[in-house]
Automatic annotation (TrEMBL):
One Pfam family of this chain: DUF5601
Superkingdom, taxonomy of origin: Eukaryota
SUPFAM superfamilies linked to this entry: Glucocorticoid receptor-like (DNA-binding domain), VPS9 domain
GO cellular component: cytosol; early endosome; endocytic vesicle; recycling endosome
GO biological process terms held by the UniProt record: endocytosis; protein transport
Name recorded for this polypeptide: Rab5 GDP/GTP exchange factor
Length: 501
């Protein structure tokens, strides 16, 4: 090859100049005996192709290992969340996201060797992708909106020319509301109420629509508009609706001890049919929060109220009166504790068709619900015919109202209720015993402190009355002749004598 000839010429020129050239530096790095090309990292063309194929096979093997690892993770996640379809879709989306991210990383890594500006473009694309909302979220949020829009268009086809004008008016109102997001919720409510009134007047005066068709049209208009505006006007951040919801919820939880007898509720839940009606009423009042249209929320309140009337009727064997309905509704609200109660009431008040709230049974039941919530917020001892001391003890959880004795239950009552009452009685007895033990312990502690103080005082009095006097030590007795200085010349004492004999 020409490259080898050039190498030989270069060697000859180097030798002529007296420069020693190591032939091993010119050969292929793999040791095949051919000359290497610096552009191919010192390999010859054949060895370079072999090294390239090896690197490519290694990359393919790593890709297969990555795919198998992602597949195992996907299968494990699928097995752990097989019970719910939502978890399956989430797992699959995570699997797809991992593969996409890994593929994007590899493509970016390859491209950055060929272009210098690819890094900036990639970062810009990633930022735009992060800011863009998730297609699945947008699709899920728009499913109901698209369905309502199609139903609204199909409904307006029956009105022919007035239907086209109604649709234009609704689109214009929605565009106007989108540009008035900065307005307060009260001002937005006034705009909605004015729009309802104007459309109703046009239906009656300009388009000469019969009253029964006007009411149906207004219901469909309200459904179409409020479905689109729900996320902007329900419990907005500019109001204190959420704070009121938490306050009402906390208040209802504190009143869990209130019994039907305290509220004079004429409902006997021991009757199976009555118990089913109570459960249905609670379900309806809780379901109100899941609706988006004010009319649908009112329908839930109406169904709840009708179940209450049926429960009272079955219990008393006579039609229920308004005096019986309101206490029972209060009891249902206390027992169900509906979520976001104040927000739902405010939403209905602000954006419901005024003609529906002012007239009809929906407006009557909604007014009673508002009265029930107001009563719960101001509930006190006098409202339940209790003393203030008992009311405070019940509110703080120190004690609870006396439950029905298990011996007085009817035979139809299930064993679970009887066992629950026995457990409550046992807990009440244990609570009284604990309070008694604590009281006796405090009394014993006081007695020990008083006894210690008494003993200390008696000791102090005795010490004060009979003080302890410590006398100095007496001097030791000296020898008889220790101070007899004058008789130093006395003869020595006599010694005993021993005689033989």
């Amino acid at each position: 090859p020409s490259f080898s000839l050039n190498r030989k010429k270069m060697n000859l020129k180097s030798e002529r100049r007296g420069i020693h050239v190591d032939q091993s530096e010119l050969l292929c790095k793999k040791g095949c005996g051919y000359y290497g090309n610096p552009a191919w990292q010192g390999f010859c063309s054949k060895c370079w192709r072999e090294e390239y194929h090896k690197a490519r096979q290694k990359q393919i093997q790593e890709d297969w290992e990555l795919a198998e690892r992602l597949q195992r993770e996907e299968e494990e996640a699928y097995a752990s969340s097989q019970s719910t379809q939502g978890a399956q879709s989430l797992t699959f989306s995570k699997f797809e996201e991992k593969k996409t991210n890994e593929k994007t990383r590899k493509v970016t890594t390859v491209k950055k060797f060929f272009t210098a500006s690819s890094r900036a473009g990639t970062k810009k694309a990633e930022i735009q992708e992060a800011k863009a909302p998730s297609p699945s979220i947008n699709r899920q949020a728009s499913i109901e909106t698209d369905r309502v829009s199609k139903e609204f268009i199909e409904f307006l086809k029956t009105y022919h020319k007035p239907g086209q004008d109604i649709y234009k008016q609704c689109k214009l109102f929605l565009d106007t509301m989108n540009h008035k997001r900065d307005l307060s919720i009260e001002e937005q409510s006034e705009c909605a109420q004015d729009f309802y009134q104007n459309v109703a007047d046009k239906l009656q005066t300009r388009w000469k629509v019969p009253p029964e068709k006007v009411e149906k049209a207004m219901d469909q208009i309200e459904k179409y508009i409020m479905t689109r505006q729900y996320k902007y006007v329900f419990c907005p951040e500019t109001t204190d609706d959420e704070k009121k919801d938490l306050a009402v919820q906390k208040r209802i939880r504190a009143l869990h001890w209130v019994t039907p007898q305290m509220l004079c509720v004429p409902v006997n839940e021991e009757i199976p049919e009555v118990s089913d009606m109570v459960v249905k009423a609670i379900t309806d009042i809780i379901e109100m929060d899941s609706k988006r249209v004010p009319r649908d929320k009112l329908a839930c309140i109406t169904k709840c109220s009708k179940h209450i009337f049926n429960a009272i009727k079955i219990t008393k064997n006579e039609p229920a009166s308004a005096d019986d309905f309101l206490p029972t509704l209060i009891y249902i609200v206390l027992k169900g504790n509906p979520p976001r109660l104040q927000s739902n009431i405010q939403y209905i008040t602000r954006f419901c068709n005024p003609s529906r709230l002012m007239t009809g049974e929906d407006g009557y039941y909604f007014t009673n619900l508002c009265c029930a919530v107001a009563f719960i917020e101001k509930l006190d001892a006098q409202s339940l015919n209790l003393s203030q001391e008992d009311f405070d003890r019940f509110m703080t959880g120190q004690t609870s109202p006396k439950k029905q004795e298990s011996d007085s239950f009817s035979p139809d009552v299930c064993l679970g209720v009887k066992q629950m009452c026995k457990s409550l009685d046992l807990l009440s007895q244990l609570n009284e015993r604990q309070e008694r033990i604590v009281s006796e312990a405090k009394k014993l502690e006081k007695d020990l402190i008083d006894w210690t103080d008494g003993i200390t005082k008696e000791v102090e009095d005795i010490v004060e009355k009979y003080p302890l006097e410590i006398k100095p030590k007496s001097q030791a007795l000296a020898a008889i002749d220790s101070e007899n200085v004058e008789n130093d010349k006395l003869p020595p004492p006599l010694q005993p004598q021993v005689y033989a004999g």
